[in-house]
Amino acid sequence: MTAKSLIHKTALVDSKAELDPSVEVGPYTLIGPEVKIQAGTVIAGHVTIQGKTEIGKNNQIGAYCTIGLPAQDKACRNDPGRVVIGDHNDIREYVSIHRGTTKEQLLTQLGSGNQIFVYSHFAHDTELGDNCMLANNTTLGGHVKFGSNIVTGGLSAYHQFTRVGSFAMVGGMTAIYQDVPPYMLCSGGRGVAYGINRVGLQRNGFSSAQVAQIQGIYNQFFASGLVPSKALAAVKSDSDGSMIYQRFIDFIEGSKRGIVAKG
């Protein structure tokens, strides 16, 4: 099969776009001149990819996705930002991914191995790590940062500049206004922490001892009755220097919007 035959005759691919010969492009898809797409990626019909967008290897991009369009921000709609997407992502129908702006690093970035379901939205300057599963209509406001191995429920929404730590889970129809630390299970109309993401941790290979250690961190930080600064000091005092502790401590210390409350 020739490279030409992998691009549907109704697709509009700019002659300056850089597509590996193995990239498949479906009908009525529009790809702009600054787009770069690596080997094995399959793009369905009616997709729009514009701007300085770089897409890695072996991604599946569903119908009606829009990638690399300007930010929905009046001050930055003409900024020459980028979108960078890693490898082996499954991006389903109607997902929108807007490019970065001068308010940050001119970059919206998605990692590898993610499952991103229908109608999810990534506003300008958002970041997503690796191996996350985002259910339908997961909505990230501008500058939202996700770690890796995160699961979200459908219709969950994330206020601008909030963060979600690695191995956390956020329930469906949850509104996140403050940061969700690593390992936590968060839900509610206004998201609060109800405990640790025990099943998710087990599925990601954490041992029983490590899960118990994380439960201890939750108890110390959320259930001790201490104010956040003193609760963090207590967690630091108990820390054994492992990555489990350090990931949590670094996340809390990096918070600018504050941490979700205990449910």
Summarize the structure in words.
The chain has 263 residues and is α/β, with parallel strands linked by helices. It has two domains: 4-146, UDP N-Acetylglucosamine Acyltransferase, domain 1 (3 Solenoid); 202-253, no CATH class. 16% of the residues lie in helices and 26% in strands. The chain has helices at residues 198-203, 208-222, 228-238, 243-253; strands at 12-13, 18-19, 24-25, 30-31, 36-37, 42-43, 48-49, 52-55, 60-61, 66-69, 82-85, 90-91, 96-98, 107-110, 115-116, 121-122, 127-128, 133-134, 139-140, 145-146, 151-152, 157-158, 163-164, 169-170, 175-176, 184-187, 192-196. Strands 3-6-9-12-15-18-21-24-26-27 form a ten-stranded mixed β-sheet. The chain has a nine-stranded parallel β-sheet with strand order 1-4-7-10-13-16-19-22-25, with no helix packed on it. It has a six-stranded parallel β-sheet with strand order 2-5-8-11-14-17, with no helix packed on it. Strand 26 and strand 27 (192-196) form a beta hairpin. The protein is elongated. It starts with 11 loop residues before the first strand and ends in a 10-residue tail after the last helix. 42% of the residues are buried. The model has no long low-confidence stretch (mean pLDDT 97). Pfam families: Acetyltransf_11 (PF13720), Hexapep (PF00132). Residues 179-260 form the UDP N-acetylglucosamine O-acyltransferase C-terminal domain. One of its GO terms (molecular function) is acyl-[acyl-carrier-protein]-UDP-N-acetylglucosamine O-acyltransferase activity.
